[in-house]
Design goal:
About 15% of the residues are buried. The protein has four helices and six strands; from the N terminus they run βββααβαββα. It is of the alpha+beta class. Strands 1-2-3 form a three-stranded mixed β-sheet, with no helix packed on it. A three-stranded antiparallel β-sheet has the order 4-6-5, with helices on one face. It folds into two domains: about 100 residues, Aspartate Aminotransferase, domain 2; about 90 residues, Alpha-Beta Complex (Aspartate Aminotransferase, domain 1), CATH 3.90.1150. The longest helix has 21 residues. The model has no long low-confidence stretch (mean pLDDT about 95). A hairpin with a 2-residue loop joins β5 and β6.
């Protein structure tokens, strides 16, 4: 900030799981995909917040017709007249993904992100506690850096064998950078966590 640099945040692992709004005052650009915690299994829609004071300074490199000052009129060459609002960054939609987004995002409208966050906090705390009970100590992070994602060091465990063992017991997760990567969301429950713990104990 002091040097005049813009701050860009990739919020793909945050949006839908944790509140975003409290952080927007301190960043310039926040971008996220729709297929992680925003629940769109189809994928194909991205969202981007750009601080209002920066919007006219930034020029899209591949502006489409929706970015014009007057859509369907402003893009006739040789020079395109861009919208003076955030719509200058709009692009053509992936319509199928947009339809799924409408349904998925309605869940967040219905319950509110604070309710989702509180539920996720309960689940991730339960997950950490249950893992500790069986001697699987998650990587420790300061509270401000914690999310709904929990990582357990794999040490000498073969990740391919472990993931196959877990999948056979209806536990889907990933191995990343020498860790078993687990994530919960509001649709999970204590039974899901018990099933994971039982599967790890039976390895």
């Amino acid at each position: 900030k002091q040097a005049g640099a813009m701050t860009f945040v990739d919020g793909s692992q945050m949006a839908g799981a944790l509140p975003v709004a409290p952080y927007l005052d301190s960043i310039d650009v926040f971008a996220t995909s729709d297929h992680k915690f925003l629940l769109n299994a189809v994928r194909g829609v991205g969202y981007c917040y750009i601080r209002k004071s920066l919007q006219r300074r930034l020029v899209p490199t591949n502006a489409g017709w929706k970015a014009g000052a007057v859509p369907l009129e402003s893009f006739f060459g040789p020079e395109m007249r861009l919208s003076q609002t955030a719509s200058r960054f709009d692009n053509s939609l992936n319509w199928l993904a947009a339809i799924v987004d409408e349904a998925a995002l309605s869940l967040f409208d219905r319950f509110g992100i604070d309710t989702v966050f509180n539920r996720n906090s309960e689940l991730v705390n339960l997950l950490r506690d249950r893992l500790a009970e069986i001697g699987q100590q998650p990587i420790s992070l300061p509270p401000v850096n914690q999310s709904t994602i929990v990582a357990i060091p794999l040490d000498d465990t073969d990740p391919t064998t472990l993931l196959k063992h877990l999948k056979a017991r209806d536990v889907v997760c990933r191995a990343r950078d020498g860790n078993l990567r687990l994530a919960v969301h509001f649709y999970n429950n204590a039974d899901d966590i018990d099933r994971l713990v039982g599967a790890l104990k039976s390895c």
